[in-house]
């Protein structure tokens, strides 16, 4: 028996095939490199951008009838409504003159400052009764803004939503909101020592089913009890009634202001 | 602050010529009327006349024109049904308390029966000067009646429609009444801020017209009165459950005064435990799961609560002197107001539903029959402020703000006024009054205005308004 057993019966001559394989691999690698260097598209300048090729040209389909964004703010400063409040000429306010500090040895007393009530009566700007005839139009609330009067205190509000015309399309709903808020504002909740305060702005949303949500004090009056009473007025309200059935939005945003005066 | 004012800011104002200066304010004052703000503002009207000179206290009511509906077919029954329908619709809207009804004599001659016939200028300017217009048509075809109705905001010409409805039912005058109630409720729901109308609600009461004091029921406007119970003894204080399916009342039985439970669906008594002693004045919690009542099973009348099935009896008061007439806070269900004689004459108290945090609400006189408003803010009560020999006190109804304990008197014109009960919308009160000579059921707006007698025959007492 032969000492060195031959286990490979066939000796393929694969050196040549190997050479081919290596050559082809190099060729492919080389062509990729060459393509990358000299191929179209340069050095990735339009990388990731739509339109570079047909497959990347996907944009938002505008033909799907998505509902319009429910909150579209209208430029309330420049709409065609004449508005509800008449701008009054600004009453000129005199800068208070500096009061000289009385000298210890001064012989003349400083003139007592004439209090405002003694000054010549300025022509009182005729106050507008906000529930009677809105300025400009004798009809319903025409703009997204309106006001109300309740027990000597005043309030007002603005609506946004529905392309900005909610207030004019659904004047009756605006009226309901106005009425309910003024009904539910209990002015005895305000600190009885306060006779007058800055206007407090409250914002809230009315959901589809008429529930006020997201009640926030947008701008405080500086009187905590007044802010509280305004927020509570809204918290006390369960519903304003469902939004008008033909209104497409999910909710309406309302800005409501309260003027407090005792 | 002075008593009698719910809203110090509104009512404490002195008359003064200051408010006459401004003509707008006077106009606003004339129009001022408002239903729930009534509760803040108008109670003063009932008490003091000067409110008419005040400033715009809230908003004016919606001015509503409701021309008679037109026949849409040429059936012979049209005329009869139209009359029922038109009367009912007008009364419902007039009773709602949130509208100023434009008088029919102001209407143009040509009234619309469908949207194409509406002439806006004829309605939105004087004389009708309406803000809203409800119109439509009604016609009988065969055995059915069809009604089409619209509500238009006539001042808003570009998009006037607020509501458009069509109803069909059997051609009977009862059905015409129901259709009118439903349409009126729709209008009130829309323009009243999402509070459902009460046109389909009912009032339960005690009447002796059959010879015994039995429980009767009628529509909210006094129509359609019929007997519910036939106990043949004395039945008092009917209380309908929030879902309207059961009626709890106290009745004289063989074993004394017991709470009985009557099923409105089965038209018979249900079994309910007998607790012994004298058991009176049941009251449903707002969720309908519990009853509160007064029982003298331990000797002294005390307040107990029990599940609607009669299980789980719990005593929640424990002081000497009678404790009777419990009512739950209808909004939260967490408080109970009741009448207690622990300091002598009966007074109104309030506590948490577990018996803690007892507070006295009335300060003097003789106060009974508390009734908590649906929004939980107010208590209505019957009060004789000056009680006793030599004190010419009359028993009148008062409304009290439960948090601040400020109150306003609502009835004035004599007789005993007692047993107030709130309507589900919180805008109306039904009560018992002897001002007509005998005890009868009356209703009014929650500011004391618009008082109307609902019953005339026999003696009718202890009304209870259904929850919806």
The gist of it:
Chain A is α+β, with helices and mostly antiparallel strands and 262 residues long. Helices cover 21% and strands 15% of the residues of chain A. In chain A, strand 3 (200-207) and strand 4 form a beta hairpin.
Shape-level CATH architecture of the largest domain in chain B: 6 Propeller
Major sheet strand order of chain A: 1-2-5-3-4
Distance linking N and C termini of chain A: 127 Å
Radius of gyration of chain A: 39 Å
Here the CATH topology of the domain at 160-262 in chain A equals Fusion Protein Consisting Of Minor Coat Protein, Glycine Rich Linker, Tola, And A His Tag, Chain: A, Domain 2
Largest sheet of chain B: 6 strands, mixed
Output the helix-strand order of chain A: HEEHHEEHE
Overall morphology of chain B: elongated
Q: How would a crystallographer describe the biggest sheet of chain A?
A: 5 strands, antiparallel
> CATH class of the largest domain in chain B, please?
Mainly Beta
Oligomer: heterodimer
**How much helical structure, as a percent, in the residues of chain B?**
10-25%
Q: State the helical fraction of chain A.
A: 10-25%
| Average of pLDDT of chain B | 84
Uncertain parts of chain A: 44-76, 125-152
